[in-house]
Amino acid sequence: MNTTRTLPTIPLPATIRSRFVEDINGLSMHVLEAGFESKGRPCVLLLHGFPELAFSWRKVMPALAEAGYHVIAPDQRGYGRTTGWDARYDGDLNAFRLTNLVRDALGLVSAFGYRSIDAVVGHDFGSSVAAWCALIRPDVFRSVVLMSAPFAGPPPLAFDTADAPPKPKREDPVHRELAALPRPRKHYQWYYSTREANADMLHAPQGVHDFLRAYYHHKSADWKDNKPYPLQSWSAGELAKLPTYYVMDLASSMAETVAAEMPSAESTAANQWLPDRELAFYSAEYERTGFRGGLQWYRCGTSGLFTAELETWSGRSIDVPSCFISGKQDWGTYQRPGVFEAMQATACTRMLGCHLVDGAGHWVQQEQPNQVSRLLLQFLKQAAENVADEPFSA
């Protein structure tokens, strides 16, 4: 029995409905849907990141639907009201690897009766899933929008090594070097991969609601020290320039890290992009599910267990129309040195634009939804024209 069916109503605009779609790659998938009133509409799939939910798209879905699109936004594997995933730290990580997340997305659009859709749009970690959707199945995902997390392309295979002496794989020294800094530090993705990270956040001393309030504030344009710029290298000295939500103090949990930046009661009361009544939905969902499902995604990356599988696509690029949208005050654009540049130079061959939206930090579609909606609709129009200009191919 799916106990999520008895949960409180989600605070959504009247034009968005909540529903479940069964048997999606082993999941009962919770989906928000707009533009469902008539059949035959072109479809757009929206993929959220961490620590968010399909709910993060509530402000852009009505505009896309009003423009004629059928808009689908799932709680992805490990999140929210979607069930059928293993919440144990010692459970099977295979289910959370990127290729299986692509399979989730593929199964969902197929369940809705689409052989192809106009665009897949991903934010934060959802950007990685969207990128791999477009890379692996460009016939289905005919354009892609990457938000707040640029894509460097698939990992490369070793090349021209048959007659060279074998080189042992080097351990990345950056973590040891970060820990050895005068102010010892650690990278958040590796912290998120630890056994204790879920409990640190689920049982945060300030409570889940205030933890999320501080986390969202710290990574938003409201935190005035978010003034990002490109880093020169993946090195301890450069990474230490990142805010503490990315490169944490070595002895601190994430709950402790963001507590130091908790906004005042006045600031919280004045917040228009995430008022407390909307944040309360996020906090209630995470209090119920914990954070483990989203954290498993990070473990897939930091463990290196699935790199060999991703090397299957070594040398491939995203060749469908693409664009990038991020907040101008979002460090996510630059947190991996060189990736923003590589995305435009090699990873995406038909990049139609990169947009850094002023007045937005990491939560760009929540902080500046009107601007994001405008950019998405502009891109969808350009992408359709771009595809129409292609020579016919059998």
What structural class is derived from the secondary structure elements?
A: alpha/beta
Computed over alpha carbons, the radius of gyration is: 20 Å
CATH class type of the largest domain: Alpha Beta
Mean pLDDT: 96
The share of residues in extended strands comes to: 5-15%
Low-confidence stretches: none
Q: Give the strand order of the largest sheet, numbering strands 1, 2, ... along the chain.
A: 1-2-4-3-5-6-9-10
Q: Got a strand count?
A: 10
Structural domains: how many: 2
The name of the CATH topology of the largest domain is Rossmann fold
In terms of quaternary structure, what is this?
A: single chain
Characterization of this structure:
There is one protein chain. With 394 residues, the protein is an alpha/beta fold. It has two domains: 13-155 and 310-388, 3-Layer(aba) Sandwich (Rossmann fold), CATH 3.40.50; 174-296, no CATH class. Helix content is 36%, strand content 14%. It is built from 16 helices and ten strands. The chain has helices spanning 61-66, 98-111, 125-136, 174-179, 188-192, 197-202, 207-218, 236-239, 254-259, 265-270, 276-289, 292-303, 307-310, 339-347, 364-367, 369-388, and strands at 16-24, 27-34, 43-47, 70-74, 119-123, 144-147, 185-187, 247-249, 322-327, 351-357. It has an eight-stranded mixed β-sheet, sandwiched between helices. Strands 7-8 form a two-stranded antiparallel ribbon. β3 (43-47), α1 and β4 form a beta-alpha-beta unit. The longest helix is centred in the last third of the chain and has 20 residues, at 369-388. The radius of gyration is 20 Å and the shape is globular. The mean pLDDT is 96.
